[in-house]
Amino acid sequence: xxxxxxxxxxYMHNVKAIFGCDNRMNxxxxxxxxxxxxxxxxxxxxxxxxNENDIYSLIGLGFKKENIKGLDLISYSRMITLGxxxxxxxxxxxxxxxxxxxxxSYSTNPSLAALEMLRLTKRGGVIAVAVEYSxxxxxxxxxxxxxxxxxxxxxxxxxxxxxxxLELFGDRVGxxxxxxxxxxxxxxxxxxxxxNVSSVAVIFGSN
Length: 207
Hints:
The protein is an alpha/beta fold. It has helices spanning about 10-15, 25-35, 55-60, 110-120, 140-145, 160-170; strands at about 45, 70, 80, 95-100, 120-130, 175-180, 200-205.
């Protein structure tokens, strides 16, 4: 299902964790859930959930199951539509909120992914994006996991701050509701996977 703008190792890298669950998406879901322009009736898209964990987290906060969609290149779940975030199989202005957690790092064209999120989000809707903070070089990644996760030769620079996330969306960025800029600056290293790696997150309204 992947296109030319997805890193080649995406499937291999993510299928290893398809049945795993963690709570890092709470960094986006919890603050999004209290923004007053979002209601329990809002239609929400989760990009890159792999499994139902993030969807049920939203349901647990009171959002209606029938209004939540997932989109991923791989999944075993009927709750998740198979597709590429660069060419999502949904109509324009389909969602009140789009959540893209730890997924845009797997794009070799993050600006295109941002444009697609804007297409899918209603004017005045909310977009929430998070990435893993990382200081790993291409050589470090290969040493750590045995292959290159990100295609550094195709990505201008790693997205590593809330400002860099917002730059992808240009003049369509409205009010910024939430920023989290990896205050502890903890990254995986070339020698080991760090369990408490930092994250960068931003939630904003779309103009």
